[in-house]
């Protein structure tokens, strides 16, 4: 078989982060952040990217990697793109504070639509949302991306062909 240079998890993470960041910028500036289906599209983009890169990693290693090796590659890629995305989202909200205010206002509107919530509860909820905004953004992004990354890594490792070397098949010396 021909010798292939394996792709690194850093490269895979950078490419996926780039795709997700471009997608986030486009949806924010086009005002499409309220559409839930686009959020799911972002997760499918991550899962599809991980499956592609895990498969390419297996292919570059002549499919000799085990399920655990392939999953680890995908999860390390997840760590890279999650870290980059969190840095991006912090910088993005600092550069565009109006987007933070719009997201808080959307949260207020959703609370106002609920008939069981009083104005006092809405004000208290908004106070808490403002106080813990950064914890919610960073923690929420971290949690969701790690879960989605684990799913993508599992699927990528599962669909990649595996022909690991058996250590007992080595010729005697």
Descriptive labels:
single chain, 173 residues, mainly alpha, 76% helix, elongated, transmembrane
Report on the structure:
76% of the residues lie in helices and 0% in strands. It has a domain at 9-96 and 141-165. It has 173 residues and is mainly α. It has helices spanning 9-29, 36-60, 67-95, 97-113, 119-131, 133-159. It is elongated and about 80 Å long.
In short:
This protein has 173 residues and is mainly alpha-helical. The protein has helices spanning 9-29, 36-60, 67-95, 97-113, 119-131, 133-159.
What is the average per-residue confidence, as pLDDT, rounded to a whole number? 86
Q: Which structural class do you get from the secondary structure elements? A: mainly alpha
- Topology pattern, helix = H, strand = E: HHHHHH
- Based on CA atoms alone, the radius of gyration comes out at 21 Å
Q: Describe the main β-sheet briefly.
A: none
User: What is the 3D form?
Assistant: elongated
Give the termini distance in whole angstroms. Answer: 25 Å
Helix count from the secondary structure assignment: 6
Q: How would you describe the oligomerization state of the chains in this entry?
A: single chain
Number of strands: 0
Helical content class: over 70%
Low-confidence stretches: none
Strand content: under 5%
Task: Spell out the blueprint of helices and strands.
Elements: H1 9-29, H2 36-60, H3 67-95, H4 97-113, H5 119-131, H6 133-159
Helix pairs in contact: 1-2, 1-3, 2-3, 2-6, 3-4, 3-6, 4-5
């Amino acid at each position: 078989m021909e010798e292939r240079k394996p792709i690194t998890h850093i490269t895979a993470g950078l490419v996926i982060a780039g795709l997700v960041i471009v997608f986030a910028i486009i949806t924010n500036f086009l005002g499409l952040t309220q559409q839930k289906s686009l959020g799911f599209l972002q997760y499918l983009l991550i899962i599809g990217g991980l499956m592609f890169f895990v498969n390419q990693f297996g292919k570059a290693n002549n499919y000799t990697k085990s399920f655990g090796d392939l999953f680890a590659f995908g999860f390390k890629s997840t760590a890279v793109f999650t870290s980059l995305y969190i840095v991006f989202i912090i910088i993005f909200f600092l550069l565009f504070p109006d987007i933070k205010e719009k997201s808080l206002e959307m949260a207020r509107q959703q609370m106002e639509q609920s008939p069981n919530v009083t104005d006092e509860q809405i004000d208290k909820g908004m106070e808490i949302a403002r106080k813990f905004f950064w914890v919610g953004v960073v923690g929420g992004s971290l949690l969701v991306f790690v879960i989605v990354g684990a799913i993508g890594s599992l699927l990528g490792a599962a669909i990649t062909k595996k022909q690991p070397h058996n250590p007992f098949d080595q010729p005697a010396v």
